[in-house]
Amino acid sequence: MAVRMAEVPIDDRPRERLARMGPAGLSDAELIALVIRSGAAGCNAVHVAEELLAGAGGLCGVAHTPLESLAAGRAMGGAKAAALAAAFELGRRTARELPVSRVVRDASDIAIVARPFIRHPTREECLVVVLNRAHRVIKVESLTVGTAVRCLVEPRDVLEVVLRCGGVAFALVHTHPSGAPTPSAEDIAVTRRVQESASLVGLEFLDHVVVADTKHTSIVATGPGSQG
């Protein structure tokens, strides 16, 4: 049985640890506990948070759990689920503002910049990272959303986004909801077509990155099948 929060030494409680160490010093479970604020009989807020994390496979899984599923968790309910969903959305919105003017150097940078803009974790989604001549991010724009296993991408649509945003370089990103970042034959074919089209109009194509959960694969820079 979990220890009641009242039985936890004051200095070890999440709120006191936050004041003493700052938010970076807390675990994922402690941060979630501060958002949901309370647990239930025999299940304190930290224990509830640990169950959520374990059930969803980690913080990223909790962030993308549907509201109704969060609410159905032990000792959760609608109010706690809403507070948690709002906290994750605020984090995503903050992260979307950060990449502007960030310099992109490799596939890892591209994946970091694109992840906050992914809106559909259960379907393949394609995004364009638009860059200036110095490879600083101008904009990240969602191009298209497909099914759980496929997302259609037309080179002309990609180039239209880049030119409209005033970019001179760009990267393509798309998601694999399956969790496997290995590119398909179609992904590789799309990469070739986009690369050829960009060359024709004088745009620099940096990479096509497949993002799956916390993993990514670079098709251009690292080669198909190489994972980051």
Describe the structure.
- The chain is built from 9 helices and 5 strands.
- The chain is of the alpha+beta class and 228 residues long.
- The protein folds into 2 domains: 5-96; 99-218, Cytidine Deaminase, domain 2 (3-Layer(aba) Sandwich).
- A 5-stranded mixed beta sheet has the order 2-1-3-4-5, sandwiched between helices.
- α9 (185-200) links the parallel β3 and β4 (204-212).
- α8 (155-164) crosses α9.
- The longest helix has 20 residues, at 78-97.
Topology:
Layout lengths: L13 H8 L6 H9 L8 H12 L2 H5 L3 H5 L6 H20 L9 H8 L10 E7 L5 E9 L9 H10 L4 E7 L9 H16 L3 E9 L2 E4 L10
Parallel strand pairs: 3-4
Antiparallel strand pairs: 1-2, 1-3, 4-5
Name its key features.
228 residues; alpha+beta; Cytidine Deaminase, domain 2; 2 domains; five-stranded mixed sheet; 9 helices
CATH class type of the largest domain: Alpha Beta
Uncertain ranges:
none
Percent helix: 40-55%
The general outline is elongated
Radius of gyration: 21 Å
How far is it from the N-terminal to the C-terminal residue, by CA?
Answer: 39 Å
Q: How does the helix and strand content classify structurally?
A: alpha+beta
Number of helices: 9
Mean pLDDT: 87
The major beta sheet can be summarized as: 5 strands, mixed
Q: How many distinct folded domains?
A: 2
